[in-house]
Amino acid sequence: MSLVSGPGRGMASLPAETRLYVDKHVSYIQSLDTRKDELEYWLTEHLRLNGLYWGMTALHLLGHPEALPRDGILKFVFSCLHESGGFGAAPGHDAHMLYTCSAVQIIATLDAFDKLEAHMEHGRRKVGQWIASLQDPETGTFAGDEWGEKDTRFIFNAFLSLSLLGLLDLVNVDKAVQHINSCVNFDGAYGTSPGAESHSGQVYTCVGALTIADRLDLVNQERLGAWLSERQLKNGGLNGRPEKTEDVCYSWWVMSSLAMINKLHWIDGEKLTAFILGCQDPDLGGLSDRPGDMVDVFHTHFGIAGLSLLKYPGLAEVDPV
Amino acid sequence: MASHGITRAAGTAVRTEEARQQQLRDVDAYKELVDLVSTKVTERQYTLEVIGLLTKLLKQNPEYYTVWNHRRRVLNALFPSDPADESSKHGVNDLLQNDLQLTFALLRQYPKCYWIWNHRNWLLETAESQQGAEVGRQLWSGELLLVNKMLGADSRNFHAWGYRRFVTAQIERLTTFTEGEAPRSLIEAEFEYTSSMIRSNLSNFSAWHHRSKIIPRLLNERDANTDARRALLDSELALICEAINTDPFDQSIWFYHQYLMSTLSPNCPSKDRIVLNLNNGDRQRYYENEMQYIREILGDEEDCKWIYEGLLFLAGAYLEVDGGTKVFTTADMRSWLEQLKRLDPLRKGRWDDLGQCLNL
Ligand SMILES: [Zn+2]
């Protein structure tokens, strides 16, 4: 996802249960990199670059892009870049599609492709070529890295990164689109590979990839919309698959997929807003998967992005892809 | 950094000074281990000692994907360059068994960690290329037991279901490959597996889904004629209707019902059909039977929205195959839609669109 435009109108005065604790969330996100005395900080180093993307995007949506210093962010991002053109999760971690996508999204949000070029000669092209090298010419799928794990997620990561780099022509888009089409199920939704059960995270990546490829004509929008709308539970939250529990991160994947096929009105936005707001930690900031659980930057980001898609007042507008 | 289901109180409890000191010692020990491993790997010390260090680190942090990559680099270096070399077979086997045990133990603890599943997959593929097809076939067959255990612990784990599909494909490939033996398909066994999973829990949509993917292949491999195909469709309909009757509020069941109905549609690709040569008269009869059955349940369950949704879906399908409104009226459809709006206000926008689409 990326920002559509700058922050919207100022926040109206709202009753406590419908309030977004903007300042708390900003200081929560700022605090994340100061927790080096906690074991958890080190055990999650393999997510550092994603975490930075999640935190930074949340801050932009909250209207506080200045809360993390631009130069510091870029310095860290480039410290994760390998000679090959791929990015790892942190310095010394191997290159992988997941982190390369986050890196490209950060650079694009900060409008800093010139800095990439300055850091590495022909950097932009090198990153694009690294991603393109992971496509299987036979099947059109993408691997996550040199070890070859395949998953529809990586097609999305590749398409999204390459479109931000302006280098989508480096890969065979049609082949990859065909592969996505072979992952569709009777319910109109998508799985990780042909034959796999429909899963909202996978729906988001497949519909997102098809949106970038301008091939939403391949989606059975009525059926998919029906399946997605049934993810909403009585408490307003959305789940990832039939008969599972609700979760803020799944809420984002489901609602952004609905938005991409113009069916966001098929669920109750007010109830979903209330569910997401109920996942805030009103004292220390941040959002969790469900009300009362421990917060983390992942759910903080998806919760705030969800509120933005639901047009919560005062937030910058988010692009569902 | 992405936590699920951990209560906030547990995370924010104030730490005592002693606990804080302990945490700092843990941090130091962990960072020391990480540094030691990366130094040794950078120096290309691809030894059994390093394997031991990697094991220690992965047990603490199985999400550390780079460490799994290091492990494969070390293992690749320890394998003999010539797989046919008999004297080294023993060593290779020990290395592989060691990793199979490690990943098994970790999967029991972290069943949703992608990197452990990936490594296991790599181990099996490597074992096959190092030790030959027969050893490969035995190992892949053993994986079915692992998958059964994983699905026994969590019958919806989508990693385990995905791995199951992959494993059965490998076993079938290698059985076909073995000389003198006729290709043996696992499709009947897999069909039976979904039956037993559904028997123990009707609400297991993963099992229903798997079944929907198996049926077309099952029929092809049985070389089923029209009668056999109709018989299978009828028995599936009987199964799902009984399930609907047992728990009409369970959406997994209704989705499987929708699946069966979708195979009847003239728009269903022929590879996905159950009965191949239906005409519109046949279709109408199927839809009529289903409508009649669901209307019977309606008598006992007036407040179940799935019933009205099912009826409207069938009515739409019926109209599509020129059934007209012999068995229901437009007024019926309108009242079903009103019930949907009453019972399911969350999806009001969808019911409004449906009303427009059906001209109600
Ligand atoms: Zn979540």
UniProtKB/TrEMBL annotation, chain A:
It comes from the Eukaryota. One of its GO terms (molecular function) is metal ion binding. GO terms for biological process: protein localization to membrane. The gene is BET2. InterPro entries: PGGT1B-like, Prenyltrans, Ptb1, Terpenoid_cyclase/PrenylTrfase. Belongs to the protein prenyltransferase subunit beta family. Residues 20-321 form the Prenyltransferase alpha-alpha toroid domain. It catalyses: geranylgeranyl diphosphate + L-cysteinyl-[protein] = S-geranylgeranyl-L-cysteinyl-[protein] + diphosphate. This is Geranylgeranyl transferase type-2 subunit beta. GO terms for cellular component: Rab-protein geranylgeranyltransferase complex. CDD domains: GGTase-II. Gene3D superfamilies: 1.50.10.20.
TrEMBL record, chain B:
It comes from the Eukaryota. Belongs to the protein prenyltransferase subunit alpha family. PROSITE patterns: PFTA. Keywords: Prenyltransferase, Repeat, Transferase. InterPro entries: Prenyl_trans_a. It catalyses: geranylgeranyl diphosphate + L-cysteinyl-[protein] = S-geranylgeranyl-L-cysteinyl-[protein] + diphosphate. This is Geranylgeranyl transferase type-2 subunit alpha. Catalyzes the transfer of a geranyl-geranyl moiety from geranyl-geranyl pyrophosphate to cysteines occuring in specific C-terminal amino acid sequences. Gene3D superfamilies: Protein prenylyltransferase (1.25.40.120). One of its GO terms (cellular component) is Rab-protein geranylgeranyltransferase complex. GO terms for molecular function: Rab geranylgeranyltransferase activity. Pfam families: PPTA (PF01239).
